[in-house]
Amino acid sequence: MSREAIRPYLISKDDDGNFRLTVRETRYNSQGYPLVTSHMQEETFKSAAAVRTFARDVFKAEPGQYDQTKSRS
Description:
Elements lengths: L8 E5 L5 E10 L5 E7 L7 H12 L6 E3 L5
Parallel strand pairs: 1-4
Antiparallel strand pairs: 1-2, 2-3
């Protein structure tokens, strides 16, 4: 398991071409093992930039807190 911190916001593209935001929360157990909870938001967006704007406005997200999955061909 990697010790690299998990970024709290994941931007992904669904099969219909819409972008989705998943909000992730990382907690640590008593041994220091990360426990990640993910919640995909219901909203869909036409671009990754629109997702970032939504995350910034609603969740106070900051630059550098995003991961983006690669779109499948």
